[in-house]
Specification:
The protein is of the alpha+beta class and 143 residues long. It has one domain: Nuclear Transport Factor 2, Chain: A, CATH 3.10.450. A five-stranded mixed sheet has the order 1-5-4-3-2, with helices on both faces. The longest helix is centred in the first third of the chain and has 17 residues.
Length: 143
Amino acid sequence: MATPEELKETYRRIIDAISRGDADGFDTLIAPDIVDHNPISDQAPGREGMRQWMTAVRTAMPDLRGTVEDVIAEGDHVAARVTWEGTHKGEFLGVAPTGKALSFSAFHHVRFSDEGAAEWWGAADLLGALGQMGAMVSAPKAQ
């Protein structure tokens, strides 16, 4: 198994591959049967599903860049905080393109195996992103 420092570097390489839109490089860093615990709607399982997510987010923000702000590793787990920045040029969170610059934080918890990232949990400040797009958020109407 990799050392905690090696896992932190692998995590940074995953964020870099997403930032470059490098699906092939991304594939070499994640296990074929990776479990995404926070999938997007209709996301396929495994590596294919993670590629779907990357394609969707890079379609919404073609210039998406992730900056790893903090990363901690222990055993086979990594916890990290990333700032995502990009220009809203495609539908994102149901909002039509606005051309606005977006910047929002995300927190990740990743478990690694010998094949790469094996489990992925993520939580992003999507409410903050919606606000930056000028979207109005309201509670569902009672029935």
